[in-house]
Amino acid sequence: MDKEQKTPQIIEFDIRGQLCPATLLIALKELNRCKEQLHNGEIQLVFKTDNRDATITIPDAAENMGYGVEVRRVDNYYLLVVEQGHS
Amino acid sequence: MTVTAYAVIVPASLLLGVVAGFIMHRAGFCMAGAFRDFFLFRQAFMLRQLLLLVVVSMILFEAARLMGFLPLYPFPLLGPPTLASLVGGALFGVGMVLAGGCVVGTLYKLGAGSVLSGVALAGLLFGSVLYGEIHPWWGAFARATIMGKGSLTLPDALGADPLLPITLAVVVVGVLLYRWLRQGKLQRHSPVRGYLQPWLAALLLALTGLCSYLLVGMPLGITTAYAKLGASIEQFVAPRHFAGLVFFKGLPLDYRYPLTQERLVGGPGPAFDGVAAIQYPLLLGLVLGGLVSAVLVREFRFYYRVPVCQYGSAFAGGLIMGLASRMTPGCNIWHIFGGLPILAIQSILFVMGLLPGAWLGGKLLTRLIIRN
């Protein structure tokens, strides 16, 4: 297949401090909205969250949709990186 | 006056609060989330943990009762089943979802630095005080809708010893839990620092509830303290109006403290009484527990730059929840950690109301968040 060589564009969402389950709702909405660009590897979605629960629920949802997810801890919050699946 | 009993109750409540707040923060043991996510995302993981907590509490409470450790059974402050509990439960369900946490979740999240939880807390105080305005007719409604003979628990209503119905409930739910355990549905992996498995949290919280029953004379309860705090403020701001409110003069708590045989009395008024001695330290402990846990995993931080509508939702949710907790009366922790395990009918009605309430709350909140 035609693998994208250029680095994907990063779109960032800062959901820190927001009401539960805003993190998951916003993530789901964006995952659906950016479906094609994500699958093509054109973009990466990055969610900043301080919600411990979201580090489980968002990767679960994104992986079910066929995306690759990475959870990174930065200072006192978490960075969830959703990108093109590797399968 | 009753200094001896307070010397046990105050430190015990504070400690139980710290322990519960810490556990809940580490495990993400959010009860509002458990009900909300079941409807919103068809995710029953946390609801299973709650069921585990109830069943373990059933076993612990029943064992303690059979060994003679629970002279107060059913525990004080539990009322007869009325329609008020069903309606109160439904409103409570809407409120806890809009507030982003229940009456206890709000506290441990506040301790962990959530500004929105602070706003929800303000709403809780306001809602609890607001109840003082409707108490005369709501109280009449509750009295007019008492069900059956007014038996407090299901075994009592059936005229049976608690052992048989409790055993039956434990076996039925136990079979379900065993199946979930074998399917791996009670455990999950989390990348966060210091994660406590919710099943372990459920066991520890059930133990916390038992300790409260043994040391305080009743399970964990918190919401009369919200009315009390709110009352202290209202008395200061509007003393004349406050003086005319009947609700704050009531003393629903009146029991003999098992460990010292002293009589403890208390109510929603601003005085430092039995309710204050039990619930204020618990309230403070829950905030401290969340704080200590968050600081230790280095996640404590204030975030206040969130959409304005979420501030509105948190306040409105808190207000509805505060009002509902006085209408029921009681909150989710009181009824789920305490009442359900002894099959209190009031608690069963509260939970029956809570389910559609949480569903509606989820619908409203989704609309609010997605639209903005």
In summary, what is this structure?
The complex is a heterodimer of chains A (87) and B (372). Chain A contains three helices and four strands.
* CATH homologous superfamily label of chain A: TusA-like domain
Radius of gyration based on Cα positions of chain B: 20 Å
Q: What portion of residues of chain A belong to β-strands?
A: 25-35%
Amino- and carboxy-terminal Cα gap of chain B: 55 Å
The number of helical segments of chain B is 15
Number of DSSP E strands of chain A: 4
Strand order, main sheet of chain A: write it out. 1-2-4-3
CATH architecture of chain A: 2-Layer Sandwich
Average pLDDT across residues of chain B?
Answer: 95
Unreliable parts of chain B: none
Q: Helix tally of chain A?
A: 3
How would a textbook summarize the main sheet of chain B? 2 strands, antiparallel
Q: Helix-strand pattern of chain A, N to C?
A: EHHEHEE
| Widest β-sheet, arrangement of strands of chain B | 1-2
* Helix/strand/pairing category of chain A: alpha+beta
Distance between the ends of chain A:
12 Å
